[in-house]
């Protein structure tokens, strides 16, 4: 089947998509956008998190056909050409990135949180990130990154 | 449309940030933008996908294999079996005992039997499932001690010694010591998985010279190359390995996974072949941490001084040897812990069974021993009526102490100080105030409002060797070049060392900056066109590849300084005198020249263990960490919430303080996982939980605040005085947490991980 979708503001079409294919597979293997990761493809790790119509979802759990006509934003679409989004920048600055395989998913989850609630408490941050596994960092520096990003976003709004 | 291809990129580190500072990772921006090319992201025009058929049985004879039904699937290009392996159909890190593709027997569930290349991954998988294998199912050997009993089926008939992979004996001091206070116990450690997030993956690209370029996520390019060459029957210059982006490792990428398979398929089809394991396959695609049974007896004076340690340790190595022999050596030589013990008697045995193969995982044998000896120290404290920290401090190893191998500890060993530092930290506040479910065991599952919840505090300390031990020729190679580019002096560093997330690329740039006084450093992609760097394991790369990069920088610097009379050093892009006076601009001194040096660097040699006693200068360096764990336990439901996990670690020199803390926190959480949640459930040789739904690793909700204190007592034998960092925190966190649960519940808890039923039922 053919799937049409908007990704990071551009219209894309994928052909010969099988009914069983996930949005993640279409992004990574058919459309050349491997930013969203494939650590489990079972909805357990969050490494594949993307925005679908503005809501973070596990792209591995979304059938490609379900995304027909909808709008997707991936980690590749967060920053500008030469500019990082404040959330991305905070992850680099705080040492929240080691192997980085969890990072794209966490960046999206954190981006969603700090825009919904730039004054999130630590408990709220933990809750918001509970679906994103990281095996390298022990999460402490990821929390630092989210706090830093939140303060940047809060500052921009003030 | 832009596509990631197989090109591996150089990383550029600019600005300031030498040794001892925390400059940002040169790959950080790529990683946060989703542009870093991991091994599973590779793409090539015309590429095929590979898939692997694996044995469903832990032990079976193969009567026949019929690939016919798979070949009829449209889109399939080739199906290969053991008959298609052109070279040696055997590989292995220490013993070549593992077939690339099974011949007439399979020895574990998940053993590769056939491989398929097809147009897309789904077709490849479906075709693999259609290969018909006729198995004669055999009774698996699933108990390590039973595997050593007379009459047990011999799993590797050509291996001398039956199912025994290695036994190490430590004999130190009086062979028959006695003591007034004796405690003993039997401890069990479950099978832990490394659970890196980036699945095993890579791409093999056939080359015009009949060779292959293999892009893969691995820990040791040259060890892979050696084994791939043997299996393909090709010379090393025909098998070129390139490090693709690595999504974590933790030991699980030491052994081969898809390397030979992808290469075979690529050579046969003449097309690039990509293989990416799914999460379930990943559980079968790499070795795990050895499950262990550890029987310990500690004898002490009434004052709490250790008189002796006796231990019997049995490690289940599973179906193939992997690194079982070295893991056995570690568990034995480190088996008495970071303590002064005058008399030690340890038998440590690694065994073949039909369970999943076990090998390297962060901590490498020292983790299992640490859980047992630390549990024993707590028992001893209780028997003596003194505090757990006190009993440890009284016996703490220090510089000048003698290990049970007879090796004198010849640099700092601040074991007592590490313990005192975590003990003296303020405790986290008691629960109180308004009810917040998120602060209780069970969390928002709303399983308690505090009733039955008891707090406990526990301690642990451990000792880990750094680098390869027991006489292994442990070295790394670095090529450093200095030249002027765009009017600026630029250093480039080329090694084959695997960056797996730990931050070695940052560190290499820091070293070059410090040694060569330049701002801009280019880290070239790691590949086999430069000499071996050894493995990214054993907490060794900062030490050994760091040492090699420094040595190569020194050689470059000497060549440059020879050009300027009175020159003593390089700093701020200038040649300077001993007093720091600028003598010449580095750009002018270099001119058009390229100064390049390649250095192979070794740490001081170690020795093989004496087979009868284990005596040897076995380890090049020891590293120590201590933890204090605070837990809340719902004693009615057996649920645990770790409230805080404090760590103190001596790192010799904090080469990159931020990265050091990141390693310590990450390692501590892997120890937390082993303490309370992580175990591969194996029943009759069959894995029951090969998914992240059923094999649970800590989420951010399971992970507490982790204050870290970093000590810097320089090791005079090591580059910059540094001490390996990655593994020690994984050792002591597990026993500290289990001790805290014991303190809260009064349960004996002899097994890691602790399950709710152990708490509720005792
Ligand atoms: S890859 Fe989608 S949740 Fe893990
Ligand atoms: S940085 Fe490696 S999984 Fe998070």
TrEMBL record, chain A:
Domain of life of the organism encoding this protein: Bacteria
MF-aspect GO terms: 2 iron, 2 sulfur cluster binding; metal ion binding; oxidoreductase activity
Residue ranges occupied by any 2Fe-2S ferredoxin-type domain in the UniProt entry: 1-78
Keywords: 2Fe-2S, Iron, Iron-sulfur, Metal-binding, Oxidoreductase
Matches recorded under InterPro entries: 2Fe-2S-bd, 2Fe-2S-bd_dom_sf, 2Fe-2S_ferredoxin-like_sf, 2Fe-2S_ferredoxin-type, 2Fe2S_fd_BS, Beta-grasp_dom_sf, Diverse_Oxidoreductases
Bilayer-spanning residue ranges: none
Pfam families, alphabetized: Fer2, Fer2_2
Entry protein name: (2Fe-2S)-binding protein
Taxonomic source organism: Actinophytocola xanthii
UniProtKB/TrEMBL annotation, chain B:
Organism of derivation: Actinophytocola xanthii
UniProt cross-references to InterPro entries, sorted A to Z: Ald_Oxase/Xan_DH_a/b (IPR000674), Ald_Oxase/Xan_DH_a/b_sf (IPR036856), Ald_Oxase/xanthine_DH-like (IPR016208), AldOxase/xan_DH_MoCoBD1 (IPR008274), AldOxase/xan_DH_MoCoBD2 (IPR046867), AldOxase/xan_DH_Mopterin-bd_sf (IPR037165), Xanthine_dehydrogenase_dsu (IPR017609)
SUPFAM superfamilies assigned to the protein according to its UniProt record, in alphabetical order: CO dehydrogenase molybdoprotein N-domain-like, Molybdenum cofactor-binding domain
Record region (Disordered): 1-27, 425-449
Family annotation (Pfam families): Ald_Xan_dh_C (PF01315), MoCoBD_1 (PF02738), MoCoBD_2 (PF20256)
GO MF terms, alphabetically ordered: iron ion binding; oxidoreductase activity
Domain Aldehyde oxidase/xanthine dehydrogenase a/b hammerhead: 33-139
Protein name, UniProt field: Xanthine dehydrogenase subunit D
């Amino acid at each position: 089947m053919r799937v049409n979708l908007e990704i990071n503001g551009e219209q894309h079409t994928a052909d010969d998509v099988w009914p069983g294919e996930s949005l993640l597979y279409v992004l990574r293997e058919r459309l050349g956008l491997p930013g969203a990761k494939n650590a489990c493809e079972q909805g357990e790790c969050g490494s594949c998190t993307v925005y679908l119509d503005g809501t973070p979802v596990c792209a591995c759990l979304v059938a490609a056909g379900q995304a027909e006509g909808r709008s997707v934003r991936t980690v590749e679409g967060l920053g500008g050409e030469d500019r990082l989004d404040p959330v991305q920048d905070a992850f680099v600055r705080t040492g929240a990135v080691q192997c980085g395989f969890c990072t794209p998913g966490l960046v999206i989850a954190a981006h969603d949180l700090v825009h919904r609630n730039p004054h999130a408490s630590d408990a709220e941050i933990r809750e918001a990130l509970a679906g994103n596994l990281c095996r390298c960092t022990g999460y402490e520096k990821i929390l630092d990154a989210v706090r830093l990003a939140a303060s940047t976003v809060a500052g921009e709004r003030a | 449309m832009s596509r990631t291809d197989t090109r591996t990129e150089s990383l550029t580190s600019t600005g300031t940030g030498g040794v001892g500072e925390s400059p940002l990772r040169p790959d950080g921006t790529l990683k946060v933008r989703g542009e870093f090319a991991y091994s599973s992201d590779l793409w090539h025009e015309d590429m095929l996908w590979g898939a692997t058929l694996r044995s469903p049985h832990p032990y079976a004879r193969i009567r026949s294999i019929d690939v016919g039904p798979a070949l009829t699937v449209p889109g399939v290009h080739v199906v290969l079996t053991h008959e298609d392996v052109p070279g040696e159909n055997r590989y292995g890190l220490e013993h070549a005992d593992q077939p690339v593709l099974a011949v007439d027997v399979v020895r574990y569930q998940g053993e590769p039997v056939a491989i398929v290349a097809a147009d897309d991954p789904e077709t490849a998988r479906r075709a693999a499932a259609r290969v018909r294998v006729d198995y004669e199912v055999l009774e698996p050997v699933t108990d390590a001690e039973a595997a050593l009993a007379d009459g047990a089926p011999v799993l590797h008939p050509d291996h001398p010694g039956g199912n025994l992979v290695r036994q190490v004996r430590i004999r130190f001091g009086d062979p028959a010591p006695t003591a007034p206070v004796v405690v003993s116990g039997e401890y069990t450690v479950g099978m832990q998985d490394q659970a890196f997030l980036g699945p095993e993956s890579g791409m093999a690209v056939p080359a015009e010279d009949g060779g292959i370029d293999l892009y893969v996520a691995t820990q040791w390019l040259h060890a892979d190359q050696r084994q791939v060459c043997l299996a393909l029957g090709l010379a090393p210059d025909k098998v070129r390995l390139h490090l693709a982006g690595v999504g974590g490792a933790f030991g699980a990428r030491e052994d081969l996974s898809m390397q030979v398979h992808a290469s075979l398929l690529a050579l046969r089809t003449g097309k690039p072949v990509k293989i990416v394991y799914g999460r379930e396959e990943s559980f079968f695609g790499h070795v795990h941490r050895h499950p262990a049974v550890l029987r310990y007896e500690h004898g002490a004076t009434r004052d709490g001084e250790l008189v002796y340690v006796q231990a019997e340790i049995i490690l289940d190595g599973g179906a193939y040897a992997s690194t079982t022999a070295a893991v056995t050596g570690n568990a034995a030589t480190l088996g008495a812990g970071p303590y002064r013990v005058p008399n030690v008697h340890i038998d440590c045995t690694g065994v073949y069974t039909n369970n999943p193969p076990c090998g390297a995982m962060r901590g490498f044998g020292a983790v299992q021993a640490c859980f047992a000896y630390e549990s024993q120290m707590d028992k001893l404290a209780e028997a003596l009526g003194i505090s757990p920290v006190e009993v440890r401090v009284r016996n703490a190893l220090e510089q000048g102490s003698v290990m049970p191998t007879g090796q004198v500890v010849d640099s700092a060993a601040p074991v007592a100080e590490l313990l005192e530092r975590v003990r003296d930290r303020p405790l986290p506040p008691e629960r109180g105030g308004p009810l917040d479910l998120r602060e209780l065991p069970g969390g928002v599952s709303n399983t308690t409002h505090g009733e039955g919840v008891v707090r406990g505090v526990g301690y642990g300390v451990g000792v880990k060797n750094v680098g390869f031990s027991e006489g292994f020729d442990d070295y790394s190679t670095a090529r450093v070049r200095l030249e002027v580019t765009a009017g600026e002096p630029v250093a480039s560093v080329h090694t084959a060392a695997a960056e797996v997330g730990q931050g070695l690329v940052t560190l290499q740039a820091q070293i070059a900056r410090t040694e060569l006084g330049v701002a801009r450093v280019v880290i070239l992609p790691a590949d086999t066109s430069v000499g071996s760097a050894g493995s990214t394991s054993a907490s060794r790369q900062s030490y050994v590849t760091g040492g090699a990069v420094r040595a190569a920088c020194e050689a470059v610097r000497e060549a440059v300084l020879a050009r300027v009379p009175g020159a003593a050093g390089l700093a701020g892009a200038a040649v300077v005198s001993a007093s720091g006076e600028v003598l010449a601009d580095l750009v002018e001194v270099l001119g058009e020249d390229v100064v390049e040096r390649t250095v192979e660097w070794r740490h001081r040699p170690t020795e093989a263990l004496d087979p009868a006693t284990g005596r040897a200068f076995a380890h090049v360096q020891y590293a120590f960490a201590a933890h204090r764990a605070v837990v809340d336990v719902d004693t009615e439901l057996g649920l645990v919430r770790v409230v805080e996990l404090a760590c103190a670690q001596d790192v010799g020199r904090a080469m990159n303080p931020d990265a050091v803390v990141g390693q310590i926190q990450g390692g501590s959480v892997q120890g937390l996982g082993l303490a309370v949640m992580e175990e591969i459930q194996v029943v009759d040789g069959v894995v029951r939980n090969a998914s992240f739904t059923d094999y649970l690793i800590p989420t951010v909700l399971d992970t507490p605040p982790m204050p870290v204190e970093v000590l810097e007592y320089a090791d005079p034998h090591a580059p910059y005085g540094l001490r390996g960092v990655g593994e020690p925190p994984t050792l002591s966190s597990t026993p500290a947490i289990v001790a805290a649960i014991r303190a809260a519940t009064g349960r004996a808890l002899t097994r890691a991980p602790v399950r709710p039923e152990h708490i509720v039922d005792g």
